[in-house]
Specification:
Helix content: 25-40%
CATH architecture of the largest domain: Alpha Horseshoe
CATH topology of the largest domain: Zincin-like fold
Number of domains: 4
Number of strands: 31
Mean pLDDT: 96
CATH superfamily of the largest domain: Peptidase M1, alanyl aminopeptidase, C-terminal domain
Strand content: 15-25%
Number of helices: 26
Length: 876
């Protein structure tokens, strides 16, 4: 596939949508696989939906057209028009059979779009526009067709031949060839097409659905990796059972297959019945995978399975509706992962992404609504806004309507739209039908960019025992913001940290401890409050907004220690951290030291000493906001000085509870073999967090870290030791890194962790170390996982080094973007993201970035993917 560098840069607008003038009822595809010369014979049963239309334009890229027929007639060159991206057939009948024969070169396809080779195996990626790189087709999501696919290949090299649906035939041929034929009985868009051919190992089991259908579950992995596939199979079974129990959704085909490949631009793809995965989200065993890896596998396996209903059976009318499937499915996989792991840890992790990634996206040049209005390259809109903010918007509906009504709305949505390509408006309409509630105001969430802010002021009247909460909403980045429907979950605490019973005083505007903010400014009054309370607000992060409430630092510390809502306590820790960083930065500018207030350290100690606290909660209250988030709070800070202040704060917080951390580390160990269970994960989380904190205390921790590594019987603890020693400048660090590499050199996903840790090393000389990593024998500049582990990790997590004052970090990453853009525009465009916050930096760094990007745009041939991102960046 070309990188579209020389194609016309066309802006596509949601308002320009028109229904298709032709539809395709059936598709028959015949693949004769060959590494350099695959031949694809496609037969389309085409029906005209617009009687006035005579010409049919099919999409196609990087295809060599061999022949085209309509009916039994071979078309001459004057009966069609061929361009680099289209095949237009003239005078097409109302109903016709169209056949094309094309040749493609999978081995030369390094975009990882369309049909390509990964570690010697054939694989496909068709969302959003990869199918047009396989055959000529109406490649748009509102064309739903039945597919029959026959695959022929060398049996010794490619014994496994897979496509969507059910296998309906197979056989051997002369010359060592064989064939398999697949039929998908459901209508699907072309972006859900999948093909896999290769030499894979397989693990399988049967699953009986709630409708008593037996489904053959299979997980395929590259040879030699079968011992890492069993957990993925268990996760798939768990996801299927959970979707039946929670959403009453069952699977309808006879087989469900997952294939793990080494080279993949995304996490995974939900192709109907044949999911293709980046292998980092399938492979897992205790020796090679951390608890976090297991959680990711669980979540992504669930996510792609849940797409069977929210994305496949009910799909998108057009790509502007992407959040219809992705936001909804993220919401579903978040709930699934919460139920099977830690409710507290998972929810805080999701909100951390919102505050530190999505809010920054909202404030940057690529800001867009969850339903975008335009795009040049659709690849650029697989964003945190579409996915994570989209999920939070779904969650708000559950808060507004209540769990039971929301569940009825989901049933209505799936029942009404099964087999259709629909829009976000159709989803909201289903919620209106189920609830009887007018949600027209809520729809503004889909069309307005930016992070809303809610300014809160309070007043307590002791005479009337009434507490008044005034909320005013705004969207600072929007010129004329709509008034949104914002549900704000809250509570009132007494002096002992206990919740007041406010249900007796609630009304329609504050039902179920939720303030329903539907006006620009609104006051909520609660009665029978005997003393001035402490307001706990935006509990469980009930809306994707920033709260502005002028409360004292002492009150934040009180909430951290006493609030009954974990999200509010974490938000209090977040607020205290920002306060300490701001004050520490101001002191550093004057050459002074900042001392953490006693009430803050006591609040942290109270959390540590409370044995009932979730261990992941403890880890998160010690996780500082990202520099990206802080750039939105501080005025053009020196990022290097800011990082030094943050490192100092981490050390000071660790010192303030050093005895407790040593006690926590020593108090409990897992006494049996590794298992991915809540109890074991909690113990490992406690000990590894304690080790991280002890590492901040200095070089005296090195012997403890080495011992931790040597005694580890699982990857979680080994990575815990490596992560801890990365904070210390000592000879033992390099020794431990070398030991780790020698032990796991044959396991690419583990070596990705090794690369990522070093790329994120914030000690001086980071860029030189990262440059050296790109010349390491294990570095593969064409593998997305490896590039993200080194270049991506450096730019995204080693922010101060990326923003080196001499601009060297910028030039290094831009050079990588230019190199990668030639063969993989999607990967290159993702590496552009760290440049998006450049307007928040100091003048010198702004000048360096602006000049570098202008040079990139003026003097280099760029793909649409990279050009769109960088041109918006520089125009911001």
């Amino acid at each position: 596939m070309s990188n579209s560098a020389t194609s016309e840069r066309i802006t596509h607008y949601r308002s320009d949508y028109v229904s298709p003038q032709f539809t395709i009822d059936q598709v028959h595809m015949d693949f004769l696989l060959h590494e350099q010369e695959t031949v694809v014979h496609t037969t389309l049963q085409v029906r005209k939906t617009d009687p006035d239309q005579t010409d049919l334009t099919l999409h196609g890229e990087c295809l060599v057209l061999l022949r085209v027929e309509i009916g039994d007639k071979v078309l001459s060159s004057d009966e069609y028009t061929l361009t680099d991206t289209t095949l237009t057939l003239h005078h097409v009948p109302d109903i016709s059979t169209i056949q094309t024969w094309v040749r493609i070169n999978p081995e030369a396809n390094q975009t990882l779009n369309g049909l390509y080779l990964s570690n010697g195996n054939f694989a496909t990626q068709c969302e959003p526009h990869g199918f047009r790189c396989i055959t000529y087709y109406l490649d748009r999501p509102d064309i739903l067709s039945q597919f029959v696919v026959k695959i022929t290949a060398d049996k010794s090299r490619y014994p496994v031949l897979l496509s969507n649906g059910n296998c309906i035939g197979q056989g051997d041929l002369d010359g060592g060839m064989h064939w398999v034929q697949w039929e998908d009985p459901t209508h699907k868009p072309s972006y859900l097409f999948a093909l896999v051919a290769g030499d894979f190992a397989c693990t399988r089991k049967d699953f009986i659905t709630m409708e008593n259908r037996k489904v053959d579950l299979r997980v395929y992995v590259e040879q030699g990796k079968l011992d890492q596939a069993e957990f993925a199979l268990e996760a798939l079974e768990a996801a299927m059972r959970w979707d039946e129990e929670v959403f009453q959704r069952a699977y309808e085909l006879d087989i469900y297959m997952i294939v793990a490949v080494s080279d993949f631009n995304f996490g995974a793809m939900e192709n109907k019945g044949l999911n293709i995965f980046n292998d980092q989200y399938v492979l897992a065993n205790p020796e090679l995978s951390t608890d976090q890896d297991y959680t990711h596998v669980l979540g992504v396996i669930g996510h792609e399975y849940f797409h069977n209903w929210s994305g496949n059976r009910v799909t998108c009318r057009d790509w502007f509706q992407l959040s219809l499937k992705e936001g909804l499915t993220i919401y579903r996989d978040q709930r699934f992962t919460q139920d099977l792991t830690s409710v507290v840890g998972k929810r805080i992790a999701d909100v951390y992404v919102m505050k530190n990634i999505q809010f920054a996206e909202d404030a940057g040049p690529m800001s867009h609504p969850i339903r975008p209005d335009s795009y040049v390259s659709m690849n650029n809109f697989y964003t945190s806004t579409v996915y994570n903010k989209g999920a939070e918007v779904i969650r708000m509906l559950e808060v507004i309507l209540g769990k039971e009504v929301f569940a009825s709305g989901m049933d209505e949505y799936f029942h009404t739209n099964d087999g259709l390509a629909v829009t976000t408006d159709d989803f909201v309409t289903s919620m209106e039908v189920a609830s009887g509630k007018d949600l027209s105001q809520f729809r503004h969430w889909y069309c307005q960019a930016g992070t809303p802010e809610v300014d809160i002021s309070t007043h307590y009247d002791a005479d009337t025992q009434q507490y008044h909460i005034t909320c005013r909403q705004s969207v600072p980045t929007a010129e004329s913001p709509e008034v949104l429907y914002i549900p704000i979950q809250f509570g009132l605490l007494d002096a002992g940290g206990n919740d007041y019973n406010i249900a007796q005083t609630e009304n329609a505007h504050t039902a179920n401890s939720v303030m329903h903010l539907t006006e620009r400014e609104q006051t909520f009054t609660l009665s029978h409050i005997p003393a001035r309370p402490v307001l706990s607000v935006l509990r469980n992060f009930s809306a994707p907004v920033e709260i502005r409430y002028n409360r004292s630092d002492e009150e934040w510390a009180f909430l951290l220690a006493h609030d009954n809502d974990y999200l509010s306590r974490w938000s209090a820790a977040n607020a205290l951290q920002i306060m300490m960083i701001e004050k520490g930065y101001a002191a550093a500018l004057q050459g002074k030291d900042y001392v953490i207030p006693h009430y803050v350290t006591e609040a942290y100690r109270a959390c540590l000493l409370d044995r009932t606290n979730d261990p992941e909660f403890i880890s998160y209250i010690y996780t500082l906001p990202s520099i990206k988030y802080l750039l939105m709070r501080l005025h053009q800070p020196d990022v290097l000085l800011l990082q030094q202040v943050m490192q100092r704060l981490k050390r000071d917080l660790a010192f303030s509870a050093s005895a407790i951390w040593h006690a926590r580390y020593n108090e409990e160990e897992v006494q049996c073999g590794y298992a991915f269970t809540a109890d074991q994960v909690a113990i490992r989380s406690k000990r590894n967090e304690a080790l991280q904190q002890i590492a901040y205390l200095g070089t005296d921790a090195t012997s403890m870290i080495q011992r931790h590594y040597e005694q580890a019987d699982n990857m979680t603890d080994r990575i815990g030791a490596l992560s801890a020693i990365m904070h210390i400048e000592c000879p033992e660090k390099n020794d431990l890194l070398e030991t780790f590499y020698n032990q796991y050199a044959d396991h690419p996903l583990v070596i990705d962790k090794w690369f990522r840790l070093q790329a994120g090393d914030k000690l001086p000389g980071a860029l030189d170390r990262v440059r050296a990593l790109t010349t390491h024998p294990a570095y593969d500049s064409r593998n997305p996982n490896r590039v993200r582990a080194v270049v991506g990790a450096f730019a995204a997590t080693n922010v101060a080094q990326f923003h080196a004052a001499d601009g060297s970090g910028y030039h290094f990453v831009l050079d990588e973007i230019k190199r990668i853009d030639v063969f993989n525009p999607q990967l290159a465009a993702r590496l552009c993201e760290p440049f998006m916050s450049w307007r928040l930096l100091d003048d010198k760094r702004q000048s360096l970035i602006e000049k570098a990007i202008q040079d990139l745009l003026a003097n280099h041939v760029l793909s649409n993917d990279v050009h769109e991102v960088m041109s918006k960046c520089i125009a911001s």
